[in-house]
Each structure stands twice: as C-alpha cells, then as structure tokens.
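Q: My labmate handed me this sequence with no annotations at all. I'd like to see what the chain might look like in three dimensions before we decide whether it's worth expressing. Could you predict it?
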Amino acid sequence: MSALMEVRHGGEREGAAAERRKRSQLGFGKIAANVLLVISALLFIFPFYWIVTGAFKVQNVAVAIPPEWIPLEPTLDNFRVLFNNPVWKWGFNSFFVATSEMVGVCLTASMAGYVLAKKQFPGRKLIFILFVSAMALPKQVILVPLFTMLADFGWIDTYQGLILPALGWPFGVFLMKQFAQTIPGELIEAAKIDGCSELRLFYGIIMPLLKPALGALAIFTFINAWNDYFSQLIITRSTSMMTLPLGLATLQGEYTTPYGVLMAGAALASLPMILIFLLFQKAFTQGITMGAVKG
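A: Here is what I predict for the chain of 295 residues:
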C-alpha cells in the first residue's frame, strides 16, 4: 500500500512539475512576443519621431552627423518659412480631393460589390474577373490614355480631373464584394417580401451591414488619395491647384534642400491621415477581423 501511495504521489509531483514547466514556457513566450511587438512598434514609430523632431531643427542641425536625436535648441523658423507659401490652399486641395474620393469610392464600390455578390445576371463572373485583373495593372500603364481623355473633357487642372478617375477603384469593388457575400440571402428576401424597395433595401439594410468594410475602405481610399503624388503631378498645372505633396516638392531648391522645412510640411501632412485612422479605427479593426475569419 505504501508503495502504491508513493507511486501516486510521485505521479502527482511529476504532473505538477510538468504543469509548472508549461506555464513558465507560456510565460516566457508571452514576454518574448511582447518584447518583439514593442521593438517593432518603436521601429515603425521612429521615422515619424525623426520627422517631428526635425521640423524643429535648423538646417545645419538637421543634416549634422552624428545626428542630434533630441533638438537641444528647438525653433519655429521652419514653420514660418513653410507658411510663407500657400500651404493652406495646398492642404485644402489635398483634403477636398481625398475626402471626395473616399466618399465616392465607398458609395460606388459598395453598390458594385453588392450587385456582384447578390444579383444574378449574365456576365457577372466575367465582370468581377475584369475588376480583379485591373488590380494587377500599374497606374502608369493607364496614365497616357487617361490624360488624353481628361484633356478632351477639359478637366486638366480641375477638381473633377483629380477626383472622378479614382471613383472606380477595383480594389474597393473587390473588398466590398467579398464582404457583401457574407450577408444572408434570407435577410434580403425577407425585406423584399415586406415590400422594401431596392433603394431602401440598399441604404437601410445593406449599407449598415457593410459598415466594418466601409470603415476599412474609407481609410485605404483616403490614404491612397492623399499620397497619390504621381497622378496629381500629371493632372495639375497651376500652383493654386497643387495638393500638399506637390506643393512640398516645389520647396526643394536646385542646389539646396531645406530639410527642416520639408520635415515641418511632412509632419503637418501626416496629421489628417492620423485623424482619419482614429475616426475609423473601430470599423477598420472590425473589417480586418471579419475578413480574416470569413475570408
């Protein structure tokens, strides 16, 4: 009997030791993962930190080697020089174009995605394949015919020339179509039986269900439009129609580069993107999570 009890106690001790080892391994893995995440976050934040601190440095300090990590003599001269230019007009152009594209793309992409996901008509799969194929085309491939078309319409150096070509973004249609597929067909049929019109069905039922995807698409569209330097460079001509990225590029001289002024402009240019992300953060995370689970 004593031998049996000893064996039992020995097994319990081994089980407890194994449990402690498992917990310690899990604890070590969690600590290592947190350390890795902190290091990664610091690496991603560092460029923004360098831009913000550089905005308060004079030219010789901004290009000094070894670098001055923290401005010892911060100055606002870079912002004074920056605002001697029509920065507010450039900023308004960027915000108006990016916001208009964000609203337009969310509207058109949600309608197209819903139709491709829930409506049955000839050529539906072919149209979706064309949208997916268009995602693989570099923007530079279509710039020449796009510029010719805009010139024929008289839309060069206008807001409609900057906004309208981006409203049929293939990625937006693809994203909304994938999310619209998760909407139960029975819900749509029940709404139609209750006498719900197609317009009311879309705006009253479909759009609220697509809210997480719309939040993610809004962030993607705004950032893409705000940073669309190449297309805006081709379409704009006058200084008054320049967006903020284009305007900041004109501040670079032929022989010198005012790094402090450019960093001040870059810091200001990043604020709207940060604000948009904070406004749509909840919907964005929900959209990414739903896409990861449901595919």
